[in-house]
Amino acid sequence: MLTDIEIAQQADIKPIKDIASKLGIDENDLEYYGKYKAKLSESFINTMSDKPDGKLILVTAMNPTPAGEGKTTTSVGLGDALSALGKKTVLALREPSLGPVFGIKGGAAGGGYAQVIPMEDINLHFTGDMHAITAANNLCCAMLDNHIQQGNALGIDVKRILIKRCLDMNDRELRNIVAGLGGRMNGVPREDGFIITVASEVMAILCLADNIDDLKHRLGNILIAYDTNGNPVYARDIKADGAMTALLKDAIKPNLVQTLEGTPVLIHGGPFANIAHGCNSVRATKLALKLGDYCVTEAGFGSDLGAEKFFDIKCRKAGLKPSAAVIVATVRSLKYNGGVPKTELTEENLEALKKGIVNLGAHIENMHKFGIPTVVAINRFLTDSDSELEYIQKFCTDLGADFAMSEVFAKGGNGGKILAEKVIAAADKKSEFKTIYPDNISIKEKIETVAKNIYGADEVVYTTKAEKALADIEKLAVSDYPVCIAKTQYSLSDNPSLLGRPRNFVITVRDIRLSNGAEFIVVYTGDIMTMPGLPKVPAAEKIDVDSTGKITGLF
User: What's this model's pTM, rounded to 2 decimal places?
Assistant: First the structure.
């Protein structure tokens, strides 16, 4: 059996100009990064504003196992299946972070025969967007520390610095550090720490910005610190916004690649869903809608995280209206939610399946709350038994939810044609899309609406630290911003051990921070690390390259 990377390396990859020509994109509008990937020029993007939009399809999921459930694979396979049915389709996906690539998950460009290629490039440095975001964020941090070192004209309180340096790698050693040691010439000593690049506000801003002017405006609005009088200090106050934008002038342009079957894909941006808002860029999604009759996109983790933020943050800010949603479910994720440990998920266990399937029911109900026609995609694995699959289908039928078996991992687009037909039918229905809360209620009311209506919590409680942070944020008159709740992906609650569909639980808000440039409020619940660590056996241990430059072991 071939590995994902072996399948990708044997693919008949087309020159990217041929993929662009399918969409009517002239070669002069491509900015090449080798033969098989390119950015789209700003001048071309500007010509698309008057074009009609296609239909927006969101792929989300139920709460996953630690290994992931194939949401990107399903998205890619669905896109290929729609193309095979004669529908002009463009995928809009997230860029993988090096943290998960070298950590637990390995590659993140789909899998099996439903992949985006060139797989190695996409999973590693790609077109340099992640590095540009890292550099822009860290330039702001360096300018802030330099301002303090050079006299601190703004009176910045070194104990109230909010922005942290970032790195696109899992490195727990950098979570908490002491900077500026070694004497006066080496800076002002203070406690600091790193976050992973995909959790940075700069990443969120890049993904929500409409254009380069909006990007610069948002970067300038980043709340980086408070002064000793309690007044906010923004990135524009230290004159960092212009240089940060210069570093991101190419990163803001969407990247064009292809699937194994030649379906066009725009991959751009990749904020984490349990820490940030978990969606690819607004620019890529809007452009895909202009270029195709169908745009298939995804949001991170389960619908309680990625889809909720996709709807309540991205769609709200960008004026997007989804036509249909797909919920990816697997036998193994249902058994995991029924209490089966990860090591035993390949064994048939109908009792655990029946216990855990209530989790899928919660996600189906959530999609209906947003008014979206929904299809359940049962992502089939070789270890699934017929009785287990039949039980899921009966559950969906009893709940009145449409469903389809998905075998895109093994069969590519051909394994997703029934799913594609169901999605087309769902998208033809009238979408009654609505966000879960309005702009004009308080921050606490927004948090409680999501916690109670989407997670199923009974109550929300706040630590003293969170209450103080909320009071500071409310002084800045940003209560109309949406909330971005950071919590575990493994449970509907903020406790990863509460699987299935927890009842009678409380959500604890331990901290709240303002992402003023991104224009949302980050709410921290549970034990969420903004700088993950590597597992005992990192995926990086299996990755290698031979003397010809051929990479192996990348998933």
Answer: 0.95
